[in-house]
Design a protein that fits this description.
Length: about 100
């Protein structure tokens, strides 16, 4: 079944780079996201599949959203990935919560 047909059937997607997807090299996460754009996914859908869809697929309940009491890593990029996914290649800052081991 093609990705387009799967999407139409309501399949939930997550982004990865180790599946040999055309146009995305191993380790090129943004390239994988751009692949989904080439299939007609909106940038908002793509950001969801890279963030909230992924944490839900992993069964995580304390991350995936910016809210009090939740864990989250935050990146600041130059540009707006809602209009330009390549902005994700221009990371300015990465913030991660303090973690206790």
């Amino acid at each position: 079944m093609s990705i387009r047909k799967m999407r139409e059937a309501g399949v939930r997607f997550i982004a990865r780079t180790d599946a040999g997807v055309p146009g995305a090299q191993f380790g090129d996460y943004v390239g994988m996201l751009e692949f989904f754009a080439s299939l007609g996914f909106s940038h908002a859908e793509i950001l969801d599949l890279a963030t909230t869809n992924s944490v839900h697929a992993l069964g995580l309940t304390d991350t995936g959203t910016l809210a009090s009491g939740m864990r989250a890593d935050l990146i600041v990029v130059q540009g707006n990935p809602l209009t330009d996914l390549a902005a994700l290649r221009r990371v300015q800052h990465v913030y991660t919560p303090a973690r206790t081991l």
